[in-house]
Amino acid sequence: MKLDVLLGLQWGDEGKGKIVDVLTPKYDVIARFQGGPNAGHTLEFNNIKHVLHTIPSGIFHPEKVNIIGNGVVIDPVIFRKEIESLKKYNLTFSNLYISKKAHFILPTHRMLDAASEAAKGVTKIGSTLKGIGPTYMDKTGRNGLRVGDILAPDFKQRYEFLKKKHIDILNQHDFTYDINEYEADWFEGIDTIRSFQLVDSEYMVNQFLNDKKSVLAEGAQGTMLDIDFGSYPFVTSSNTICAGASTGLGVAPNKFGEVMGIVKAYCTRVGSGPFPTELNDNTGEEMRKVGNEFGSTTGRPRRCGWLDLPALKYSIMINGVTQIILTKADVLSVFDTIKVCTSYKIEGKTTDQLPYDVNLPIEPIYKEFKGWKKDLTNATTLNELPKEFLDYISFIEHEVKVPITIVSVGPNRKQTIIR
Q1: Quick count: other Cβ atoms within 10 Å of Cβ 79?
Q2: Whose CA is closest to 180, among 168, 171, 191, 167?
Q3: What SS3 class is residue 343?
Q4: Cα–Cα nearest to 3, from 319, 259, 315, 317
Q5: 30: which of 58, 68, 225, 343 fits an S-S bond (Cβ 3.0–4.6 Å)?
Q6: How confident is the model at residue 296 (pLDDT cuts 50, 70, 90)?
Q7: What predicted TM-score, i.e. pTM, was given to this entire model?
Q8: What's the rounded Cα separation, in Å, for the pair 76 and 192?
């Protein structure tokens, strides 16, 4: 059995949580492979909105196995709050497993994140200040504290050693901090994690595949935020691309099957960094309002703009995408005219490739489409979709050479059309 991968093709917030929830009945296992609680995956059903930060989006299907992989970084405080918020839905979490090799976000990681961002001044990247970057830095620097370490008798000493190292750095920054209250909550979170099934997830996932079980790898953020191939340095701290599922779960590339890329019918971005099709006008504000484009984790307003095909083609190439899932098409129903960026003009030359230097001024070149001006949210079949919207889909497919297999026309799991 092959492992399928589902990931975002833009700057995150593409609607991955909803789609994982919709697809979960087709799979035996849902495994999150990277990122931390800076990601917010939103699911909506039975008139209730749920936001998950660390837990895989298949958790509401109790018969399915959910795994937090080794590529994820975990904040015990946020994890504990997430568990507590879900208990009222009668979830037992007997189907949730945590990799021993996942790394912990310490209270001091959050302080280091804030100190680093403050030191950057106007060049700050727009960090969520969740401690994600410093945690991955400790991971690659071979200083990290892992989930499996809580089983060791000297766990507290290991914690104190890393904490002291962080405090020495904070003192060099002349950064004011107080971790006492958060530290107490952190150890309560550690006690919560102790009560879960801690596993060697790489063995577990591969055994499922050997047993012909179907596995869906769930990514966080989006391709354009990948640490290697995103709009560096305005990126996250992990590999958000398909290859990240290999390192984040311990699965060999030759065991991959479908690669499902999720893309909004337009673009959004949170935080600083280049955004060629951004609309700093009434159109962009209308997109934000109609699409409720505010971060599910941070509440920050998202920057909005038209669909960017050069960036999308790049993401498809990097990930080896085999099918596309188009989300939030209903948001564009309010516009008379819809635009799609087909290429860039950079330093007087037209190109459809992303430049190495993300700070170069980029002028998007657009193709215009007639808007469909019809509410899509109640559509359940392709026949109910207006011709103008179907033309929009066909154009995207023709340009990127990948089929759009699912269309989302609203936040609810039922507002999903399989093509």
Answers
A1: 23
A2: 167
A3: strand
A4: 259
A5: 58
A6: low
A7: 0.93
A8: 8
Q: What is the pLDDT of residue 92?
A: 85
Asked if residue 245 lies in contact with residue 33, where contact means CB atoms within 8 angstroms, the answer is yes
How many beta carbons lie within 10 A of that of residue 337, not counting itself? Answer: 10
Phi and psi (nearest 5°) for 372?
Answer: -90, -20
For 313-342, write each residue's pLDDT tens digit: 999 999 999 999 999 999 999 999 999 999
DSSP code at position 131: S
Q: Are 365 and 342 in contact (CB under 8 A)?
A: yes
In order, the DSSP letters of 15-61 are SHHHHHHHHGGG-SEEEE-SB-TT--EEEEETTEEEEESSS-TTTT-
pLDDT by residue (tens digit) across 117-175? 877 766 666 677 889 999 999 999 999 999 999 999 999 999 999 999 999 999 888 77
Distance CA 122, CA 25 (A): 46
Name every residue whose Cβ is closer than 8 Å to that of residue 36 and which is 6 or more positions away in sequence.
53, 54, 72, 73, 74, 75, 105, 130, 131, 132, 135, 220
- Residue 394: count of CB within 10 angstroms of its CB: 11
Please state, in angstroms and rounded to a whole number, the distance separating the CA atoms of residues 359 and 231.
9
Express each pLDDT in 235-281 by its tens digit: 999 999 999 999 999 999 999 999 999 999 999 999 889 999 999 99
For strands 48-52 and 29-32, give the pairing.
unpaired
Please state whether 177 falls in left (phi above 0), alpha (psi between -120 and 50) or beta.
Answer: beta
Beta bridge partners of 52: 41
Pairing of β 303-305 and β 337-346? unpaired
Residue 219 gets the label, from left (phi > 0), alpha (psi -120 to 50) or beta, of beta
Beta bridge partners of 98: 68, 198
Give the CA diameter of the chain.
66
Q: Give catalytic residue positions.
A: 13, 41
Tell me the backbone φ, ψ of residue 219, rounded to 5 degrees.
-95, 170
Q: Is 114 helix (H, G, I), strand (E, B) or coil?
A: helix
Count Cβ atoms below 10 Å from residue 233 Cβ, excluding itself.
12
Q: How far is CA 381 from the centre of its chain?
A: 28
